Each structure stands twice: as structure tokens, then as C-alpha cells.
Task: inverse folding
């Protein structure tokens, strides 16, 4: 059972209250980008065994979106943070480093 | 003019807890910056209640404020007064970036009371309803089985549950099954 702390309302919500929103921090390539960029934006996703960043919505709750950092292998949750950011905040990255030294995910580490 | 009737017209069930569909309840959804003075004042003026903090409800009888999310509060007023209260609130909000809408007829309200009220609700919602975790005045938006719902605990330990009117019958049946005689779990 996955339990995520919703940073918007403060509830520790289990997964049936949540809606998964896919990978986090995807940079949009729209008008003006070339075909390869648009292709990658649409289709290319990380599929890590380990540290991963995702978007979640507290659908059966406050309704807000937020980000979560967790381990796909152990389901350990490193932390959750607000949706209004394009990169994982420092405290989240530090929390991951403490548990998984040397982790790398896309351009973050 | 037609006579408004609540979703289940006051249906009631007595099992290990008492389930009552309460009558019509005035409800206004108010969205905006809850920390903004003007908004908090408008909400307080309509209900004689202070703005509640996260996951709290300030309700007396059928007037009160329930914290729904960082930018939404549910305003409860007597059903007969909802149009007047809404007009007053819209006026008080003035130019604030806020939205107030009468949603009274889109909702149904239940009360679950009795010694096993916690158990009955806990069977249906993924929420820690133990004594220490959920107390009078606490408010929670969640689901009851398969539909969205919100509830808070009253001073006497009863739950007041709000759901969409379109699923009122489903919620009443859920609560009835959860409150069947002999279905005590005995953990709460
Ligand atoms: Zn939430």
C-alpha cells in the first residue's frame, strides 16, 4: 500500500484517495520545436529501478496536484513537494542522497 | 412555486449506529485566497464562525465553515437563507478574486450517530478514525466506498456527512450495510 503525504492539505493519503499523474518535471516542447524534441516530449519516459519522480493528485481529497519522490523498487517514499516547481527542491534531493548516495535521474542528482 | 425536498426525504436507519438523511442544508462553495482578510470576513459574516484551519470545521447547527482545500471553503447556512447569504457574501467580497456559488441542491447530508459511529464510517473511508486521530471539529474530504464525500465530527461524536445528491441513495445504502446489527468490528 502506497501512502503519500499530501503537501496541500496535510493528509497522509493512501493510494485509493490518489490519482497517478505520470512522470514529473517533463519539459514541454510545442510549437517551434523540431520533430525529435516533440517525439521525446510525447513518448520518452524514464523507467528506473530505483529513484523516481512522479505527479500525483489528491483526487478523493483536497483535489490538488503535487509531486512525489519515491523508489520504484522498494516503494519507499523520500518525500512529497508542491506542484508549482520545475525541479525537485533541495531538501528532497538531500533526503534521497541520504538513502541512495550517487542517485541520478534525468538531469538531476 | 415548487416545494424543495431533500434527496431521500429524511430517510432513517437504526443499526449499530443511527443513520439519518438530514433535510435541506444551505451550502455555498467559496473559492479564493483563504488568508485574504476580505474573504475571511465575508465568510465569517455569513455564518458567525471564524475561518477554520486546514482539515477543520467550525459548525453550529446548520451554520458554519468547513475547510475543503487551500483555496476552498464550504459555507453552511440555513437552507431558507441561502440566497440572501450568498448575495450578502458576494457584496462583501467586492473586488476580491473569489467565487461564491450556491450548491445546496447538488448535495445531500447525513448524520451517523451512536456508539459505533466511528466504526461505521471507518468501514467505508480510508481514514484513521481512532479516538486520537479524529476528534470533534476535525473535517476530512475523502471517499465513501466508490464516491467522493466529506465529513466532520460533531461535539457529541456523531458524523455529519456531505455527498453529491446524485449518489445520496448509494451512500445511504452503504451506511446501512456498514451499520447492520451484529456487524461491530470492535476495534474503534
Ligand atoms: Zn490533499
Result:
Amino acid at each position: 500500500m502506497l501512502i503519500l503525504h499530501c503537501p496541500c492539505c496535510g493528509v497522509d493519503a493512501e493510494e485509493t484517495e490518489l490519482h497517478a499523474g505520470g512522470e514529473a518535471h517533463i519539459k514541454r516542447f510545442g510549437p517551434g520545436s523540431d520533430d525529435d524534441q516533440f517525439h521525446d516530449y510525447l513518448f520518452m519516459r524514464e523507467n528506473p529501478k530505483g529513484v523516481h519522480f512522479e505527479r500525483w493528485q489528491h483526487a478523493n481529497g483536497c483535489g490538488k496536484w503535487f509531486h512525489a519522490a519515491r523508489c520504484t523498487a522498494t516503494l519507499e517514499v523520500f518525500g512529497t513537494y508542491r506542484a508549482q516547481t520545475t525541479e525537485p527542491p533541495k531538501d528532497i534531493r538531500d533526503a534521497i542522497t541520504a538513502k541512495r548516495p550517487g542517485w541520478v535521474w534525468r538531469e538531476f542528482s | 412555486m415548487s416545494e424543495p425536498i431533500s434527496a431521500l426525504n429524511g430517510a432513517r436507519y437504526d443499526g449499530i449506529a443511527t443513520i439519518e438523511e438530514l433535510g435541506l442544508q444551505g451550502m455555498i462553495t467559496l473559492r479564493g485566497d483563504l488568508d485574504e482578510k476580505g474573504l475571511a470576513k465575508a465568510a465569517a459574516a455569513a455564518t458567525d464562525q471564524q475561518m477554520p484551519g486546514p482539515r477543520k470545521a467550525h459548525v453550529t447547527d446548520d451554520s458554519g465553515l468547513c475547510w475543503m482545500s487551500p483555496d476552498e471553503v464550504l459555507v453552511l447556512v440555513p437552507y431558507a437563507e441561502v440566497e440572501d447569504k450568498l448575495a450578502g457574501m458576494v457584496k462583501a467580497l467586492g473586488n476580491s478574486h473569489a467565487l461564491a456559488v450556491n450548491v445546496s441542491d447538488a448535495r445531500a447530508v447525513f448524520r451517523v450517530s451512536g456508539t459505533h459511529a466511528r466504526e461505521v464510517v471507518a468501514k467505508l473511508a480510508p481514514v484513521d478514525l481512532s479516538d486520537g486521530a479524529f476528534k470533534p471539529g476535525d473535517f476530512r474530504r475523502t471517499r465513501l466506498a466508490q464516491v467522493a464525500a466529506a465529513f466532520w465530527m460533531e461535539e457529541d461524536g456523531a458524523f455529519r456527512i456531505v455527498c453529491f445528491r446524485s449518489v445520496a441513495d448509494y451512500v445511504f445504502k452503504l451506511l446501512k450495510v456498514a451499520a447492520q446489527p451484529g456487524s461491530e468490528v470492535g476495534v474503534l
Observations:
- Residues 108 and 168 of chain B are 6 Å apart (CA to CA).
- The mean pLDDT of chain B is 96.
- Helices of chain B lie at 37-47, 82-93, 117-122, 168-178.
- Residues A 6, 8-9, 11, 58, 61-62, 64 surround zinc ion (CB under 6 Å).
